[in-house]
Each structure stands twice: as C-alpha cells, then as structure tokens.
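#onboarding

Welcome to the new folks! Below is a worked example of what a typical request in this channel looks like: someone posts a single protein sequence, and someone else replies with the predicted structure as tokens. Don't worry about understanding the tokens yet, we'll cover that in week two.

Example request:
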Amino acid sequence: MDNKPQIKPISKDAVAIHLADGDVYTISSNYKTDYNFSTRLASFTNSWESDPAIVMGKEIVPYGHNNDLPTIIKRVMDKSNIGPGILKRKIGLQYGDGPKLYKEEINEENQEVRIPVRDPEIEAWLESWDFDRYHDMILTEFMYGEGFFSRWYRNRTNKLSDDQLDDIEAMGIKTKNKILKLECVPASWARLGWPKHPEKRLENVDTIYVGDFENNCMRSGIATYPVLDKKKPFKNRVSMTYHNLYSYARTFYSIPSYYGTIPWLETASDIPDVINYLTDNGITAAYHIHSPQAYWDDKRQKFQDRYPEETDAQIDKRLEDLKTELFQRIANTLAGKANTGKFIQTVDFYDMDGNLCKWTIEPIEQSIKDFIEAQVKISEKADSAATSGMGLHPTLANLVTTNGLSGGSQQLYAMKFHVLTDVNKPEKVIFQALNDAIAINWPDKKHIKMGFARKIIMKEDEVSPKNRVINNV
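Example response:
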C-alpha cells in the first residue's frame, strides 16, 4: 500500500479517510445544495431585456434571466417561513373592507372624497362572471410580482362584421357591444411578445403569449393574443393587457420590491435544514478514530493464512472490505440522536514487542452552542431584511424581534403610515383593467369607479364609549 491517504465510501453521505500512519477520519454529511438554483439566484444581476427569448418559435420578452422569475419566486416562497405570511398581511392591509363602487366629489372643506354608490347594472355584470375570483387572483399576482395579466372577452350580439361594427362605432353610434368578462392569467403562463418597434418599451408590445412557460410550453403549446386597443376595444373577440407598477430602468416587466432580498429568504429557509441535520447527525467529522496498525496487520495475516492461493491485490481487497464494514458499523453507532446512550466496546492488546495497541475514538470539539447562536442571528437578520424589502413594518408583519412584541400605539402609527403611503398607487394599478372595462361598457358612467373601502383607524381613547368593544367577563 502506498503512503497516500485513501478515501473509502462508508455510505452515500459518508466517507472514511485512511492515513498512512493508521489514523482514520470519518466525514459524514447529508446536507445538499441546489447548485443550479443558487446559480440562477446569483445571475439576478444580469439583464434579461436585451434580447428576445425564443419559445416554440415565438419571440417573447423573457421574464427573468432564464425566463423563469415567477418560478423562482414560487420556489423561494414555498420554502420561506416568513415570505408568504408577510405578503398575505400586505394583501389584507390593501384589501381593507373590500372592493366597492364609488364616485369622487369635493366636500365643503374643498377636499376630494369618495362617495359610495350602488349601480344595479354594473353589479349584475360583476356577478355574471365571478368577479371575486378574478379580483382575488390579480391582487395576489400583484403583491407577488407587482404586475398582472388580464384576458378580455368581448360579447357581440350584432350580425355584422368586425369592420362594419368598427365603422359604426367610429361614427358615434352606440352598439350592443360589451366586455363580457375579465380573466386573470397567472404570470407563470403569460409572456409579453417582443415588440416590432425598434424602441423597447411596454407601450410598443402588441402581442401577449399564453402557455405553460414553466415547462417550456411543451404540452400546452402557445396561444397568441393581441394587446387590447382602448380606442377600439371590440376589435378582437379576445385580447389581453398587462398592468404593473413601473420599475426603475426596467423596460417591460415589473420587479418586486423584495427582489434584492430573495437570497436572504433562501438563506433563512436553509437554516432549519442545517439545524435539523445537526440534531439528527451532528456536524461533519464529529469523531476522530484511531485504529492500531497492528490490528490490521493481524487481519491481513489471517486472510493470507486462510486464502493462500490469493494474490496481494485480492488480500488488499478483502482487507478494505473489512474496513468499510467495520467503519460503517461504527458510524451507524456514533451518528444520530436515535443512538444516544449506545456504546462501542474495544479490547486493548500488546504487540510482539510489548507495545500497547488500542482503539481510541475522540470527539471533535464543535462549539455547537456558538454555531446555533450564529444561525439564529443569521435568521433574525434574514427576517429583518425580507420584511424591509417587502415594504412592511415589522410590527405589521407580526414578527417577534429580540425586543419583544410591539406596543399598540406603535402598531397603530405603523398602520396609519402604511395606509397613507403604500396603498394608493397599488390600488390604482390593481383596478385599472376593471375601471377601463366599466368605462368601455358604460361610457355615460365613467365617473363610477371601483376601489378599496377602508375604515378610519382611531386610537381607543378617540372612540366614543358606546362604540368601543366591550369585553364581557
């Protein structure tokens, strides 16, 4: 045998390193990293808007470096312990008392206020196509990606050609054309078509494609839809729109505000796996095993006596198989919380020169307490970074920090500040498609719009005693 260290597999997650002096180190770890996923996260700094992606022969605007940003966000949120909860809280804060029809008026103090209205005709239209489901989907899509796709369906009852009806409408003659319904298309199933105009911008996109882009549209194929023309909304039987908040220096899709915190969310998601592995198996190389060379020399001699017809290479193979089996049994005994209380028995002996030969198994100092504390601090930093990136105060995100729970007044002012600064612009985008459809269907009711209704939040001492919540004991 040469003097080089030999690495022998013990199991799929563990190996034994045999040194020339007889010492043996066992290394065990079953913690794996999705390198492909990490590579894609690292590539977020690259631009993906410089050239079109080709999918099923169609030129599309790639959504992410590998045209898979919605899939990456879904995977990160599926593993995150805080991300989905924060976004649900933002959805709830945005939703308030729900969508309501209103009109805007100027009050006596010269302030613009919303006046709730009831319109049976518009309300009947909303009920006819499951508006609640549509609104729930676009609100969620917007909070996750700060944009959403809507598919528009036209209802034409006239027995005239599209060109004839367009000519009639151009003369100002009212027809029975209506937008029948709106439908949300998830971001994983929709992509903007690459614009034919040399200037790359969202306004120049005239086509939207629908298909299972998460799986390269291999089974779904790709459906092609024209972008809605507001000047001729009934030109096409089915059309689509994309509504979003503009992201700085981004030409087409919006980038969510928490985009830069995705690595933090992934790090926070990995920490439970690290701690679970530590609990079940211990940190790698937890023990240093010393085995006497005389023990193995004796085993070799016994193999040679038992199998005199075998070559040195065959004897070496038997000896290595014996080592593998022995160290596997030792590893199975030492590793894992299920083996707590078990022990290993060894017998000391003397060689022909009177030297003591013995097995020793020494635990390696691991500083587990420091390791756990470091992981907890990383987790707290990741939670803080994720909450900040998602634009929500920790008190509203229901995060318990090292300082404990926040007081009621802190939550109240955080709530008021959030409503004043973070809900108006998103609300305008969220209802843009719906309010456009109302204006198209009822040109004489353009003053009626839909938005979120919210109660005025007051401190407890500002509420009259008769309107306070009474605790019955």
